[in-house]
Amino acid sequence: MLTKPHVWKFWRSGGFDQVCIEQADDLRFLADLDPKLWAALACPTRGLRLDQQTLSYLDQDGDGRIRLPEVLASVRFVLDSLADPQLVFGGMSLRISDLRQDTEVGQRLAKSAQELRMMLKLDESEALTLEHIQDRARLFPPDHPNGDGVVPVALCTDPDMRQAMDVMIAQGQTIPDRSGEPGIDAVITQAFFEGCRNFLAWQSSRPRIAGLDLDQAWSAFDAIAAKIDDFFARCQLINFDASVTEYLNPIRERMAVLASGAMVLDAVDAADVPLAQPGPEPVLQLGARIHPAWQSALDTLVHMLIQPVLGPIEYLTLEGWRRLREIMQVFSSWKSLEPEWKPACDLEVLQAWVEANMEQRILDLIECDCSVKAEADAIMDVDRLLHFQRYLVPFLNNFVTLRDFYSRRNLAVFQAGRLYLDQRSCDLCVEVDDVAQHSSIAGLSRTYLVYCLLSRAGEKDKAIVAAVTAGEAGAIMVGRHALFFDREGRDWDAKVTKLIENPISVREAFWTPYRKMAAMLGDQIQKMAKSKEQGIEKAAASGIDHTLTSNHQPVTPTAFDVGKFAGIFAAIGLALGALGSALASLMSGILALHWWQVPLVPVGVVALVSGPSMLLAWFKLHARNLGPILEGNGWAINSRARINIVFGTALTQLATLPDAAERSLTDPYAEERTWQRWLGLAVLLAALLVAVFFHYRHF
Q1: Partner residues linked to 290 by β-bridges
Q2: Among 12, 279, 577, 625, which is 20 to 30 Å from 683 by CA?
Q3: In 3D, which of 278, 261, 279 has the Cα closest to residue 270?
C-alpha cells in the first residue's frame, strides 16, 4: 500500500509561506520538508533568549552554531524516545510509560529514568521534571564517578594525588565536572606533567660552583657589570694614549655641574661618571677610591661573586674580571632557556610526584571515571529529553518558521527586549557583538536602525540594534540617551552610537521636501541676517573712525550722484516688474482654467514636490527585510522575511493617551500665532475672489 503523504499546513506572513509545526506528524515528516522552505538554515548559540542547556544540546559539535542537520538529529532523538511525540507540544513532565519500548534509545532512557527516580526518591505517582534535575551535584555527586572523563578533587582519596590536583586547578588548568565542581581531564594532566618534566630537566642542567650562590651572584653582577666594563675600557684607552686621560676621567667637570644643586650620592646624575679614576694599568682597587654612588653595589659583588671565585683579593685585574664574566655568561645562557611555564610548587615535591608516577595514577583515576560513561550518558540523555520536551518546539518556531516573531504572541528568541526612545517603543531589538561588522550587512534591510550602547551597574556593557518602523525620525540623533528593558525586565541606560537612516513612513516622506526647503531657507535667512549684522557693525565702526578723524580735518561735502541712484531705482523696478509679470502669468493661467480645475492646482503642486519622495519611500518600505538584521549576527536566513508597513507599525508603538483620559486644551504658556491667522485670512479672501470671478465669468 502507498503511504498517504503528509499534508503540511502553511500560513503566509512576512511576504513568504511559513510552515506550521503544530502536531506530532509535523515532527515525523520534518526531514522530508524541502530545506528551501525553512526560514533559517543556521543560527548562532550566542544572543538567543532560550534555555542555554537546550542550545548546547542542539549544537552537537560544540562549534557555537546550530545547523539544519543538527536540528533534524535532535528531532529524530525525540521521535526515537517518546511513544507519543505530541508530548513536546506543551508537555512539562516525563513518566516511564511515556518512553518507547521498541527502540534502543527508548529502552536505555527508560532504564536511566528509573534509576533517576530511585536516586531522587520520587513516589510512583510523581513524574520527572526539569526542576528535579536542576541540581547536578545531586545527580552526579563529586565524590562518585560520572563518566565525563573529568575528575574533581573530591573524587580522589590519596593526599599526595589531591595535592597535585590542587596545584593543577590553582594554576587555572581546569574544566567543570558534571557535578559542577572544577576538575581536570587527561589532556590537562598530560600537559601538566609534560611541563613538570621540562622544568625538572632545565633545573638539572643548572650550572653549579662550589661555595657560590649563582642566583645572588647574578643579581650582584647584573647591577654593576656595565660600570666595571666601562672602567676597564677607559684604562685600556689611557694605556694606549695617555693624552686622553683628562677626557676619560671627567670627574672634576661633572662634579662642578652637580655641585650647583643639592648633592645626592646615589642620584642618577652620578651614573655617567666612572666607577673609579682610570689609569694606564687595568686594575680596580676594591677597598678604596670607588665612586660613592657605586660603593655599595661593588661591596655586594665582592661578597657574592669575587671572593667566592677569586678569593680575598684587594685588586681586581682585567683577567680576573674576564674569568668572572665567563662564569656569569654560562649562568646567563642557562637562565635564558628557562621554560615559560613552571609549576607552582617546590622542586622536591615535584620530583617526588614524578618518581611516584603521579601522572599515571591520575590517568588511572580518570579512566575509572570514564568506565561509567554509558550509564552517566544515559542519565544525561534523560536530561536532554526533558529539555527538548519543553524548549524544542519554541526553537523550531524560531528556526524552521518565524512564527513567534510574526504572530506577535511571544517574543522571538533573537529579540533582546524593548527600547524606549523619542516617545516611542521599539520591539525589534537584537543584541550585537560587533557594531561595525553588523552594520555593514544590516544596512541592506532598508530599515531605519538605531545602534545603542547599554550600560548597567554591575553588568558588562553590551550593544543592541533597534529597528524604528513607525512614526518619524524626529529628534533621533547620535549621542541621545534612551532606556532599554531586557527580557527579564531589567532596565539599562542606552546611548545612541550609530544610525542607519532609511524611510520610516510615507507620511514622513510627504513632509521631507518641505522640511528640507524650510531648513535651507532658514539657513539662508540666517546667513543674510548675519551678513547684514556684520555690515552694520563694520559701518558703525567705520563711522566712529570717521567721526574721530573728522574732528581734525575739514569736512568735504559729497556731491549727489544722480546716475548712481537712477541705476538703483531702475534695478528695483526691473525686479518688481519681473515678479509682477510672474504673478500675473500665474494668475492668468489659473483664471483661464475651469472652476473645477482650480482646486487641482495646489494638489498638482503638492504631488510634484512630495510625489518623488513618497514614491521612493513606498518602494523602500515595501523592501524592508528582517534577514540582513539577523545575518549580521551570524544567522543563515533562508527567506525574504519582510517587514511591511502594517507589521512595522506593530513593532514600533508611538505615544498615545490612555483610553478615557481627560485632556485640557488650555495652555497658559502657548505662543500666539497671529501670522497664521493672517495667512489663513489671506487664503480665504483669495478663494473668495476666485469664486466671485468665476461666478461673473460664467453667469
Answers
A1: 276
A2: 577
A3: 261
Alpha carbons 21 and 35: distance in angstroms, whole number: 15
Q: Looking at this protein, which amino acid is placed at residue 381?
A: D
Number of C-beta neighbours around residue 318 at 10 A: 16
Q: What is the largest CA-CA distance in the chain?
A: 139
As a whole number of angstroms, the distance between CA 139 and CA 148 comes to 13
Q: Which of 266, 308, 265, 312 is nearest to 286 (CA)?
A: 312
Write out the three cell numbers for 492.
539599562
464 strand-pairing partners:
431, 452
Provide the residue type at 53 as one letter: Q
Based on the number of CB atoms within 10 Å of its own CB, is 18 exposed (0-12), middle (13-18) or buried (19 or more)? buried
Integer Cα distance of 64 and 523 in angstroms:
53
- The pTM of this model reads 0.69
Other beta carbons within 10 angstroms of residue 509's beta carbon come to 22
Tell me the CA distances in angstroms from 611 to 357, 514, 515, 517, one per residue in order.
85, 12, 15, 15
The distance from CA 664 to its chain's CA centroid, rounded to whole angstroms, is 47
* Radius of gyration of the chain measured on its C-alpha atoms: 44
456: its cell numbers: 548597567
Pairing of strands 40-44, 65-67: antiparallel
Q: How far apart are CA 231 and CA 482, in angstroms?
A: 70
What is the reported pLDDT for 1? 46
List phi, psi (to 5°) of 642: -80, 155
Q: Quick one: pLDDT at residue 502? A: 86
CA gap 491, 643 in Å, rounded:
27
Q: Where are the alpha helices (DSSP H) in 622-673?
A: 627-631, 645-651
- The letter for the amino acid at 324 is L
> Which segment, 76-80, 346-350, 553-557, 680-684, is predicted with the most confidence on average?
76-80
Alpha helices in 29-127 (DSSP H): 52-58, 68-81, 104-120
CA atoms of 442 and 29, how far apart (whole Å): 34
Q: Which of 399, 386, 395, 390 is nearest to 81 (CA)?
A: 386
**According to the 3-state scheme, what is the secondary structure of 493-553?**
EEEEEEEECCCCCHHHHHHHHHHHHHHHHHHHHHHHHHHHHHHHHHHHHHHHHHHHHHCCC
If DSSP codes are grouped into helix, strand and coil, which group holds residue 40? strand
